[in-house]
Structures are given as C-alpha cells and as structure tokens.
Amino acid sequence: MARLTWARSRLCLSVLLVFICWAPDVNLVAGETINYNLVHSWADRLGLELFSLGDFITRRKELLENFKQEGAKVVPRQGGAIVESMAKEVEMMMDLKVSAVRRIMDTAENTALSHQNDLADKMFSYYNAKEMAEPGEPTPPPPTTPPDMDDQIGEPLIYVPPKVLVLEPRPEFHNTSVNFSVSSVHVPVNVFDRASDVIKAIQWSENLDQIFRDNYKNDPSLSWQFFGSSTGFMRQFPASKWKKDVPVDLYDCRFRSWYMEAATSPKDIIILLDKSGSMLGQRLDIAKHVVNTILDTLGTNDFVNILTFDNKVTPLVHCFEDQLIQANLGNIRELKEKIETIKPQSIANYTAALTYAFEIFETARLNSRGALCNQAIMIVGDGAPETNEEVFRFYNWRDPLYRPVRVFTYLIGKEVANWDDIRWMACENQGYYVHLSDTAEVREMVLNYIPVMARPLVLGRHDHPVIWTQVYADLEDTKLSDHLWELKQCEEQKEDVLEYRRVQDAMLEPSQMRQRAYQRTKETWDQPVDSDVYQFMTTVSMPIYDRRENANITEEVLINEALWELQTRETRIANILGVAGTDVPITEIKKLLSPYMLGVNGYAFIVTNNGYVLFHPDFRPIFQGYILKPAYNSVDMIEVELLDDDRIARDFNPVLMTIRDSIINQSTGSKWMLVKNHFDEMKRVIRVKRQYYWTAIKNTPFTLVITYPEKYGVNRVEPPIEQDIHRTHISGGKTIRSFFDGKRWKIHPDWLYCKQTNKTFRTPETELLYFVDRMSEPGWHWPSSRSAMPPEHAAAIYSNNSSTGRYSSINEKERYYCDRQLMQSLVFDARVTKGFFDKSNYDEKSVSASSPIAVLMGLLPRHEFKQRFGINVVFLATQSGLTRWHEIHTNAAEQPGAGESFSQQHKRAIDEIWYKRAVDQYFVHQESFVYSVPFDAAESGSEIIVTASNAIFYNESSKSAPVAVVGFQFQYSAFYKLFHNITGNACSIDDKDCYILDNNGFIVMSTQKHETGRFFGEINGAIMKRLVEEKVYKRVIVYDYQAVCFELPKPNDNNASNMVLSPLFNLLRMSKWLLHSALWYIVQLLQLAPGVIANFDNSFLNLSLPETKQDPAEENINSKNGWLKYLTLHRTRLKACDMQRNLYTLYNEKDNVVYNMTAHACERPFVVLPIPNSNLVLLVIDQLCPRDVSLVLTVNPQTMNYPYETNESSCYKNVHEFHRVRPASCINRHINESSIKLCGKGSRIYLNLILLLIGLILNRLFNVGCIFNINN
C-alpha cells in the first residue's frame, strides 16, 4: 500500500512539473504583435500560483477557523466612549504632574522667604551639572598652587573644587546617568555662578531636593523636575551630567518656552529698530543682537512685528505690514533672516515710528487680533531727540493709573549723551531702560523686561497660572539645526574633493554628477516619524514669586547732573524668583491612548489651543535623519489631515475648518470625512472615509482626537466572557504561561500592556511574562486606573471617607498598572495562535489541497520546497500586538538566530505597513495577497526579499472586523524564476518588456533587475502617462506642509551705508584697524592669549588631502581649477516650505474596460492586465515603438510656488491665518504697580583723557585745514 501511494505521488509530481514547465512552448517571436490572450493566461496562471503558495504556507483558513472555535465576538467600536475614556486617563496623568509642580512652587516661595536674610557664600559648593563625574571617570585633582590674583578686579579668584557624585544609567530617563538623592545645577555660559544674587539663589534652592524626592516617591512616572531661576541657573532632579556633544552650550532656561510663558502672560510686542545713518558698525551689530534676543524670548502664544525706521517707517517683512503675527518658529525665522538685510541711512523719526506702532495696537484691539494681553513697544536705537510726550499722552495715557502699552528702550552705543529722553519713555510707560555698549551683555540686559512684565502676576500673589507648552525637543536649540546643516555640507564638500583626488575626471561625468546630486537630495527627504535622536515632550510649569513686598536696593544716582553716587534705599518690589516645572514625554502620553482600541489604521492625536498638533502619526519634525526642521513644532492639524477634495494647496475645505474650530474650542463632537492618508515614506497613498471623535482634556489647553476608517474600523473583535483570564479552564495542568512558550514571538514594543514602576526589564516580552506569572497567582487584582490620583485630591477624598483622615498613596500600593482589556485580548490571541507554526505541522504533508501547486508543495521534501519557492519566513500578527513567525529551513536541524532580522524589523503588528496594506486590500479583493519589495531593492546589492500579506476578517451576524494578518517572505530570485517558467523567453527578447507593478505603480518585478523597487513613471513616463489617461492608475496629489527647502543666502552687505564718508573718517578707520592689529600681534608675542589659535577649529577648512606628485601637464590642468566649479557645493540655508507629491493608486473598479483592451501597433503599444488574487498588474510593452524618453513622472516632492515676490510660505500662511483660542489666563495689570519705580539705571559717560586730547588735536587740525582751504 505504501508503494502504491508513493507511486501515485511520483506520478502526480511528474505531471505537475510538466504542467509548470509547459509555458516555454508558447514563446512570442520577436516583432510579433502582443498577444492579448496569451498575456491574459500569464496573469491568470501567475495569480493562481502565487495565491496557492500563500494560501498553503500561511494556513490562513485554519487560523480563521481557530478564532471561530474559540468563540470570538464582533462588537461595535464606540468612538465617543473611547475618546472620553482616553481623555480621562490623560487628564489624571496630567493632574499628577501639575500637583508635583505646585508643591515645588509652594516650597520654593516659602524657602526663599525664610532665607531672605542669609548672606551669599561665594565659596558654597554645589553639584555642577557640567563638572560631575560619571562612573569610571577620574576625579579631578585639587589645585597644587594657590589661586592667582585677578589684576583687573583686584580680588582673589574664586576656586571651588567640583563635587563628585556617582551616577547610574536609568532606562526611564532614556539611559541617562542620574542620581536620585540630590539635584544638579546648570549655569549658562553667560552667567557668573559666584555673583552674589546667583550663588545665594543656588544656596537656598538646594532645599528643594526633599520635595523633588517626595514627588518622585508619590509618582514614579515623573520625568525631570526643575526650578529655573530668574538669575539664570536651573536646578534639575534627578542629578545628571550635562551633555557635551555640542560645540557650544547654548542652553539658558530663561529662553525656554516653559519659562517664558510661565513668567509672563501672553504678549503683543512691536520692535522699533532705528536704522538711521548713525547706526553703523558695532552699533548695528549690537542692535541686531538685541532684536534677535527679544525674538528668542517669544512663544506660540505671543505676537510680534518689527518696524524699521529712519525718516519713514517700514515693516521689516513686507507681507507682515500693519499687523501682529504669531511668534511661531517659522515667522521668527523669517524675521531673523530679514534683519540681516538692514541698511542704515538718513535720520530717525521717532514720532512717526511710535505713532505707527500704537496704531497697529489699536487696530489689533478693534479686530481682536493678537494676544490681547500684555502689549509692549521695544525701542532699539542710539538715542531719541525728544520724549514724544504728545504721542504717549494721546495713545497710552488715557487711564491715569494704567498704561496699556509698556515701553522698553535699549540704548545702543558707548558714547551716548542724550540718554535721558529715551529713559523717560520707558519710566513713564511702566517699562524698563537698558544701555548696551557691547554684544556680550545683550542676553542678560534684554531679559530685564521679563520681571517688569511679570509684576502684575507677582502683585497678585495667589494666582499661579498653569502653563502647558507646545511640543519641543528637549535641550535642543533651533540654532543647532543650522549648525548641523553647515557641518553636513562641509562633510559633503570634503568627500567630493577626496573622491576627485582618487578617481579624477571620472567623477565629473554627467551621469555620475546627476547620481551624486540625486542621492544627496534623496537624503533630505528622509523624514522619520519615530526617532530616538531627540526626546520630544511638553512641559507643565508655573511661576514662583518673591513674597517680599519691599527690599533694600543699592544703585548709582546722578547728583545735580554732575556726580554719580551710590545710594541704598528701601523700595516696593514685585520680583519673580523663577519657574518650576516638570517634563511630560510625548511617548508617555501615547502609551495612555490605548492604540489597540482604535485598530489598524486608526490613531489618536492631540491639538493645542493654537491648532498645532502636540503629536500626530504624520508629525515629521526631523529631516536628514537627525536635523530638526526650522519650524518643526508649529504644524497645524489641517496640515496633516488632508481632505480628499482636489483643492489647491492651502485652500482648506470649510468643513475641515469648522471641525478645527470645534476642536480648539474644546468642544465634544464627531464627524466623518474623506481623506488622503500617505504612508511608506510618503510614496503611497490611500483614499479613505474616516470617522473622527474629539473631546477636551480638562484643565489643559489640549483636545484629544481619535479617528478610524469607516469601512473596517467601526467594529472590533474581543474574546468571549468565558475566556477571561481568571475564568479560563486550561486542561492538562497548563497555565497561561504555556501560551507564550518559545522565542518566536514579540509584542508591540510601544504599547502599554503592564508596567512595574519600580522594576525594569530587559525586553517588553520579559516584562509581559513577569505579569503573566503574577496573574496566575492568588490575590491578583486589576488596577482601577493606569495613573495614580494626585496626593492632594486623594487626601480630600479619603479625609471625607475615613475617620483618621489617612489616605493610601501610590507608594503604599503595588507599584504596577495593567491594561485589562489589552491583556485579555493578548492572552486570547496567544491561545488561538499557539503552536500554529510548530515544525511538526509543516512536516505533515497533505495532498488533499485544492490546487495543483498545493499538491506539489505537499509532496516536495523540505529542502526542495525551500529551494523551489525560496520562502524564508512565515508570519502572523494580531490586533492585540502579538507577532509570531516561523523560519523555513533547508534541513530539520534548528538554526539559531534565523528569523531575527524579521523579528527586529517587523514587531509592531498593526502598525506595520504590510499589515495596513493587507487590511485595505481586503476591500478590493477579499481572497488576495499584497506583494511588495523595498524601494531601494536595486541599490542594496543583497538578495531582494518579497513580502506578501493577507488580512483575515472575522464575521459574525453581518458584522466583520480584521482580527489578524498572515504573510510570508520569499526570495526575489524564486519569484523571477516562477515568472520566467510561465512566460518563457517572451519577456527576454529585445522587443518586449514585461513588468509587474503594484497598486501604487512601483515595480515589483522586471526583466531588468536594477529597475526593481523603482517607480515605473521614472522608467517609462510615456506609458505611465497612458495608464493614467486610461484610468488604470489615478493620480492623487498630496501636499507636504512640513517640507524643508534649501535656498542660497543673499549677498551680505548689511554693514554698507550710502553715506559719503569724509577723508578724515576714512583715516580714523584705518588708524583704528592698525591699532587693533598692532595690539593683537603684541598679545600674541607676549603669549597673553594662549590657546586662542590652538582652539580655532579649522577641521573643515583643512581637508587633510594626501600629498601626491603630479606631472607638469596635470599641474597645469589643476592650476586652472576647472574641476572646482563642478565639485564646489553652493552653501544653502534651511527654509520651511510647502511641497507637492504626485502619487498614484489603482482604480478598483471590478469591470474596468481598460483590461479588455488589446495592443494596437504603436497607437497602444502595450497590454495591461490585473494579476488575480493580488495587488499587482502585468504590463507587457512593445519596445520597438518610439516613445518620448524625456517624459518622466515621479513621486518625488516638488516645491510649491506661491503668488508673492519672495515666494515665502510664511507670507502665504500669514494671509490665510487660522483661528486660535487665547490662553485662559491673562494677568497684565495691577492697581499697585504704579508704586514700583524701578525702571533702569541712567548712563554714565566716562571721559578718557588721552581720547579727549586726541579729539582736540584732530579738531584743531580739521579747523586749520578748513581755514587753509578758505584762504586758497
């Protein structure tokens, strides 16, 4: 009987092999017209073979049957209830953070008040974040010689040995080395830490360590806690060492959004920049620095504009005329770039400038534009000729006790005499006056306006506004993006020169130059959504007030306009001590949003009061893989939710605008919309109808939005009640742990299944198994919520319910939390799929399959099966985030490590692209697989892997929902061999080209392997255009409103002037240059500035080229430097802009007539047919017909052009400004503020005797010269 069975098997196998190899007998002859019927048979056979292979190897029907047998239920997805539940979870978590910050604030105010009479100890030792030692680092030795004397100040130099602290890396702080016993202090480079006010604040703030520790004890999920002092330092807990991987430490907490927005209520600021002829040289440099620093202090809730004035007033940016613009990163960058183009000329008309500014404020109030809270005019100039009292009296003094617009004045220049008028403007308008004579003092002096604007807050005492910031990259400065881009360009320039020295003129071939340019442009399109380069977060903060009402101050007072005298007096004060805050990482918020509840292609995002997204699946803040975009955190929700309405760029649909208004107004609602969702590096697109639900996160400026596709998102699958973890009856003495045997499984690494707050685990799978074991133990209970209740809230509740008033804190409970619904679903999926890929199952061959290819598979030995079909791995993923896989080996022996590449790259289950595409394909053809190859398949140089996936939908009572996706990966060479067996040599001859394209127009298989993975329009644009015209493919335009462009900098002639300089002035300039040069050489000779040259970084100027000897002819060629014009990169700067992509998708009509059309000579030199049971089409082209090779269609981005002279997207955005909601808190006035008389110190003019004599001599010489000329 066995022999008979074996004989039948061999006969069946022989027949099948002959059947498969039959195709070569029907080869086409060169030059023959494309045979439609033959191509149709190819497509049908290829579809059948591929589907049969996938159906057999994935056992998808058996998996679906398993879910039915286990009693899975299809239930409706209640979007309104889901969004309310998620918002409540986030609200509780955020309340915890606010609670911690409030305790820091209260402790700081009390501590500062109790230590107000302490003396500053300049030898006080503290944990300096820049000097602490990490584990393994040597301790710096103590000084061996006594400190020298500082000749300039006449006092001993202060040296305090750095304190040593043991630091240990902690995963909850992104593996940063920390110490939980103390806090560390960061001091900016522009702040002297031994100054009396600074060191005194460092002293008393050390007492905050206890409250930091208590907060962390109450809430172990807390991230960094900190106190930012108004003196400049920042105390941070837990203690950590400041990173030194940046060239310059630019960090100053007072310029961070969490500090600025908490220290003052929202601001409308107009900067008046004097550009008269006297603003030349250093004065102009200082003025620019002042303006840039003011701009750095503004946030997204502030509004600003810059007016330049000489004899007339001009807006710095033309399209910002007569209005206030939001101070987001894009607008601030635009203003900063325009500052560099200023050219001083003429004389200054302060009256016209002030009038213009006040009228803008008046218009803003009437039109309800801007922040409508604090308003201020910042005057930057070298002196005003008069007080302009009439202007102020008309616009600003209508209320005797209140000045609606503050005036801050910045007097520029060393030798200034008319300082009193410009100081009067500030003092009489509740502002502050500053005199600046050097760029080094600009940052500190500019910040003087913050305490003045904070006075109404401080005088109110009890009102501490809670501030939530826009998303930002922790510790990073946007200036670093420009620096990194410059470094990138320098590296590319260096690479080009070195490569030229190696290959010489071969590098200058046009094809090589085009390829090099394309590769570098392609790198700029790298915009990862998830990246570990930066830690994105929001911060909650609140101001800390000095509770003193009066204080003694010492200042210089001008006596009789002749003598300066130091005087000490008691005066009324309202000082801000600083800001307390804590970070909330975006990743922690995402974990609370239960993404599994939204299903595949569902997602949640949060919108701020300004309409900007806090996070979103299409939020792409990085380009080039590691550089922050210029305007990365001002992405509006309507710029990422793209309606499918075929409107032009930035012509947003009124329906979408209405939804946006409802969201930022923190209403609760729902709506469905047709949208375009791009994915897979923005090269694919789907058009889908989505349902949206939104509701407010209470006590925050945020609104939570969830959305899911209407086709398959309205239902979900859940386990039956009897499959509850505690009710599950496991026969044979097995436990839940047995469902997770082996190592071939992963869970979604970003989802929150269970979390042990006081315990860390090596992998998510290890943590899961820990909890699976605990669930099997007696006494297990599910936590009621993921987030603990704020201690003060819990105290109030428990004090009402307990006679003792004692309440249980998070520290007294088990420090864990679990998502019960997700865990139930995961255990159910693990039970259903357990043993699904056991090796024994694949050894049991069956010849009862429904297709010839399946019969063949059942008969083939394992090694022949692997060799013939090239299958590497079979996998499945479920809605609960579980992924399982099985490797197909050439022998029965286990191969350690096989399949690890798949598990590392594809462990995110429903978030994987093959999962999403399979679910979408289900509604095109239920019995079909989605096939794909990498876009860079032809460039990788390694074996190309084809991925195939199929969605499994579970149906119950006319309701269906996706429950899992199965798939497999196989070698491209086996795919090509199968195709060749079917088509024979017909696609190998010169006059025929055969392509297999996917549903987005990308080449999955071609007779030319180097074309695999590329977009077909780049290979044959003429045929792709015909396919679009004949409605095989549809072009879908997608706008990228987060793009980055690169523009050449304009010539910098900002120090030029149209003034005619006298010969004497030129002589003085030359003398000054000679004097500076002489002093510099003297300093070098005397070695008074050691290390200046040594520290000059010219690593990018010195290319370290190898020395090579060249023959005379070669030297002659190189002497002309002809190659430089081809290899020299043109330096560019980053620019936020909009781009357009033309993407393509197949028409999904079942009876598309185009598939019945035959080839007709060169009028239609191709046949295109769908490949059944797949997302593919087969395209056969007659190559003998001429075509337009210059026509290229691409999916690469193209820059948008807007109707403005400068073509600035910021101008276009400003014209189409969107509605926003102002912050709830606005404290901009207090009745007692008029009693505070501190408004800045007067200027002193120091006369140098030598300079005075030189001036007199030059004046006498000038007069003699004039008399001589007159006499002649």
UniProtKB/TrEMBL annotation:
TM ranges: 1245-1270
Keyword check for Lipoprotein: no
UniProt-listed SMART domains: VWA
Signal peptide span: 1-31
Topology in the lipid bilayer: Single-pass type I membrane protein
Domain VWFA: 268-450
GO cellular component, one term: voltage-gated calcium channel complex
Coiled-coil boundaries: none
Gene3D superfamilies reported for this sequence: PAS domain, von Willebrand factor, type A domain
Assigned keywords, A-Z: Calcium, Calcium channel, Calcium transport, Disulfide bond, Glycoprotein, Ion channel, Ion transport, Membrane, Metal-binding, Signal, Transmembrane, Transmembrane helix, Transport, Voltage-gated channel
Residue ranges with Pro residues bias: 137-146
Key word Metal-binding present: yes
An annotated Gene Ontology molecular function: metal ion binding
Region (Disordered): 132-152
Subcellular location: Membrane
PANTHER family, per the entry: STRAIGHTJACKET, ISOFORM C, VOLTAGE-DEPENDENT CALCIUM CHANNEL SUBUNIT ALPHA-2/DELTA-RELATED
Protein name: Voltage-dependent calcium channel subunit alpha-2/delta-3 isoform X1
Organism: Drosophila albomicans (Fruit fly)
